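Session log. Operator J.P. requested a structure for one protein chain; no other inputs attached. Running the standard single-chain path with token output.
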Amino acid sequence: MMGISRWTGKGGSYRTVQRLFQTVIPWPLVFWLFFREQSLDQNETYLLVGDESVVAKSGKHTHGLDRFYAGLYGKPIPSVSFFSLSLVGIQERHSYPMMVEQIVRTEAEKAAVKAKKQAKKARPKTKKEKPGRPKGSKNKDKTQVELTPELEQIKAMVTKQLAIINEEIPVKYLVLDGHFGNNKALQMTRQTGLHLISKLRHDAALYFRYGGSQKRRKYGDKIDYTNIPDQYLKESTVAEGILTKTYQAIMLHKAFAHPLNVVIIVKINLKTGKRAHVVLFSSDLDLTYDQVVQFYALRFQIEFNFRDAKQHWGLEDFMNISETAVTNAANLSLFMVNLSHVLLQALRQDSPAAGVLDLKAHYRGHKYVTETLKLLPEKPEPILIHRIFTTIARIGRIHGDNSRPRAA
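Structure written below.
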């Protein structure tokens, strides 16, 4: 907000922007209309991708301020948090932000988390209980789950997003990171009509399906990640001394209600013998192993949205504190990610390597030329104006030496 007056040039414009930030704007509809008119490809297949972004904040008055875990710091920090939904094109491999909501914890949630931590500390250390099912316990319907407030919010966002799309885009999959690799998240996703693609813990207790003659037996052998049967091997490649093996199987997990389409990627250093693996899964049992890997890998495209919004469009710098103003600031910064992508497509016709900094310098140069021409007693010839625009627009650009930017 403090920097707006520098590029509006007039106090009236600054006050207009201030009023704008205090106005409730239907951002999901704004995102969708812009995307539909400027970026939608009817021949493309889109995934719905969700992720959280944490923005560090000082002070005590920003709406929703709390201690959220920040991966950059490796610990919870005073911050605000936003959950975003994006559409990612499978062929284009680009993420378009479509909806952003702030995560606000209620006092009841904070008290529950605090009580849980205190109870864990006060719990006396006892011997481990014997493995197996507790005596007297009954079967539970694992499809009937109580969603956490976080999952309730995400479910509402997904439902709202699907209603806005209104079948113009046949979205089938919701892709979330490993934080949502659990039965509650899967049931939440299925309740919206989508299939979940996510990641399990590296030590997830998975079981092969039993194929013997015992009718009531459901679970087969438990998986040994160091010795996966070759019958499940789908692909094996070697590159730069690293052997990569990809396995796929329909497997069971005792915490999940339904079978899972599991893809395990194992990497082995042929020189040192060290190995590591990741466990991906989907609720859609018909997906091939390469689709599961490809779709989950595309989830990372949303991280580029957050990077650009923080680095170039003010997501990490806004000074607003009220609920509406914070919501508008976050949505505007991610909307600018979509807008800049469209503008860059035009700029890259003349300069293929152009980035956001080049885009800013280009339009800043045009602004300077426009304001300077207003001061001249006589307007120059159109050819001269074009040359001035072209020359000034290059100043400050990183990738402008071998390009000829078009005049406005």
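Operator note: The chain has three domains: 8-107+146-176+299-347, 200-285, 351-408.
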